[in-house]
Amino acid sequence: MPRRACADEFNAIDKPSVIELNHSLISSTTSHSVRAPEIEVPSMTFVVTEACIKCKLTDCVEVCPVDCFHEGPNFLVIDPDECIDCTLCEPECPVEAIYSEDELPAGQEQYLQLNEDLSRDWPVITEMKDPPDDADEWREVKDKLQYLER
Description:
CATH topology of the domain at 46-147: Alpha-Beta Plaits
Distance between the termini: 92 Å
Order of helices and strands: HHEHEEEHH
CATH class of the domain at 46-147: Alpha Beta
Strand order of the largest sheet: 1-4
CATH architecture of the domain at 46-147: 2-Layer Sandwich
Helix content: 25-40%
Structural class: alpha+beta
Radius of gyration: 30 Å
Strand content: 5-15%
Shape: elongated
């Protein structure tokens, strides 16, 4: 008998009004009011390292889609706030001075902070320029931080 009572109650419900109520609730919940929580993805940057000092070859700036390179007297840096991690610059560097921040070679970690600091003061560079006259003489030299001109 309890089954019959449930069936009678179910049949007694005004189904069209329940359907309209549900439709109204669903319609008022749009894609604008229901959003997945935004997850902040940590950004990564590329870093110009010691090999660029006194070489300052500018092949990399030509391919940068966001103009994140800044030029100093004898070195280039990447603004970490502008870099979009596109990877275009890395293979363009003839002296292999550009690395992603999570792949910096041992001993080059300080260049992450150096790029950030110097990019605040130096102007943006967007076009390739002729290298310094003595750039080839500096390609294989190690420990060049002492020659960095600010």
